[in-house]
Write a structure and sequence with these properties.
The protein is of the alpha+beta class. It is built from 14 helices and 13 strands.
Length: 434
């Protein structure tokens, strides 16, 4: 039996290890990358990478637009069949849109479906003006409500997610919003699983392919502008447990969806082990890094001071029309990227050797896996620290654990090193090392 358990644990660790390396490669290739996976029932963070780093929400913004609309429905200030007037400002919004004519109207329920399925920017403004008088007034309502929900790093400037350097958020804040939409308005959450709807003779199909293709996925939202990359918030349920995950900064819709599927698989795998009380799920192989908080996100003022994007692409999840490979204008990570300054690494400090601190990057049942990951981490820090020493510390007992560490660091250097690794998407934690 013990041999069987060791085999099972080895397979489980290797499975999780592979996904950790996938996250590392994703982050290295993509400076906009951020992700978080949360167990809704417990609130446990099952995975995070750059979760508190400032990002652009793109059309994930429309989840807050819908949240406020659901509040109005719940309070009785609106009803599903109520017509909403279309202003010239709303009609002028760029695609994606429903192509509403100024002076026409749209029913509230059709507006909900248009925001979820079509991610229609003109409809977002219709809702904003109906609830806030003006879109700018509604954006202030959105920001205030975000703060009340605990989304402390989020600022809204419009109802759609169209490009605005001051409109910022984090993956953690978008996960918070996703969970609150489900918990506060369960009677309306089903709209987020809508895959198509017909309006005035035209059938519109959702860009959210995860709801169609990932078993157990039942909603939320996709988003894209050039400055953000391809974003998605997804909720999925398996064995009566629900997970919410947010991925930001995908190069393409397809790669984003593939990575989201991997993160959900990994999250459910860890959740299953936690429910069984398996020791490996409580080890730091996934590196929740509770001991090391993210650096504070840049403010909206800092964002505004950054260079503006040239020819930003419209929002609204026009994923079939836009691609980072084919778009002209700013490429991801270029010098003109307005978010580049926010995610650039700080000037490398001079290493002071001989310290009693370490950076731990994983815990494994196999020494070779631990040594490989520690060496990989050391390579990533070549420009930050010289003479990084790798240690694979073994914990005894019936089930041995090999902890991959970079050792002999001063405390400040250890924190700087871990911050650098986390900015590249690699899990780590700072620990005292004897």
């Amino acid at each position: 039996m013990r041999s069987y358990n060791r085999h099972y644990l080895g397979v489980a660790v290797f499975f999780l290890f592979c996904f950790q390396l996938l996250a590392i490669d994703t982050a290295q290739a993509n400076p906009r990358y951020a992700a978080i996976v949360i167990d809704v029932e417990s609130g446990d963070v099952l995975h995070s990478a750059n979760a508190d780093a400032t990002r652009y929400p793109a059309s994930l913004t429309k989840m807050m637009t819908l949240y406020l609309l659901f509040e109005a429905l719940e309070s009785g200030n609106m009803h599903l069949s109520q017509p909403l007037p279309v202003s010239s400002h709303a009609a002028s919004m760029p695609a994606s849109k429903l192509w509403l004519a100024a002076g026409s109207s749209i029913a509230v329920e059709d507006a909900i479906k248009a925001l979820v399925v079509r991610s229609a920017n003109d409809v977002a403004v219709v809702v904003a003006e109906a609830l806030g008088g003006t879109e700018s007034g509604f954006a202030r309502m959105m920001t205030q409500r975000a703060q009340e929900l605990g989304m402390t790093s989020t600022v809204f400037r419009n109802a759609s997610g169209l490009p605005d350097n001051d409109q910022v958020t984090t993956a953690r804040d978008m996960a918070t919003l996703s969970i609150r939409v489900m918990q506060d308005f369960p009677q309306y959450y089903h709209y987020f699983s809508t895959q198509s709807f017909t309006y005035r003779g035209t059938t519109h199909t959702s860009h959210n392919r995860l709801v169609r293709n990932y078993p157990g996925a039942d909603g939320l939202k996709t988003g894209f502008i050039r400055a953000s990359g391809f974003n998605v918030a997804t909720s999925a349920i398996r064995d009566n447990r629900r997970i919410v995950s947010v991925v930001m900064g995908g190069f393409t819709a397809a790669s984003r969806d593939t990575h989201m599927s991997d993160l959900l698989d990994r999250g459910f795998a860890r959740l299953s082990m936690l429910q069984r009380g398996d020791w490996i799920a409580r080890a730091d192989v996934l590196g929740d890094r509770m001991e090391l908080p993210d650096s504070p996100p840049a403010s909206a003022q800092q964002l505004a001071a950054a260079p503006e994007s040239r020819a930003q692409a419209p929002s609204g999840d026009s994923e079939q029309r836009y691609s980072f490979q084919s778009e002209v204008g700013i490429e991801m990570g270029s010098a003109d990227d307005p978010i580049r300054a926010l995610i650039a690494q700080a000037d490398a400090p001079q290493q002071r050797s001989g310290g009693s601190w370490a950076v731990q990057v994983g815990a494994f049942s196999d020494a070779d896996q631990a040594r490989y990951l520690a060496s990989h981490a050391a390579d990533q820090l070549a420009s930050l620290l010289s003479d990084v020493r790798v240690s694979v510390a073994e914990s005894g007992g019936d089930q041995r654990v090999f902890r991959a560490r970079l050792v002999d660091l001063q405390e400040s250097d250890a924190h700087s090193a871990c911050h650098s690794l986390r900015a590249q998407g690699m899990d780590c934690m700072v620990v005292a090392h004897n």
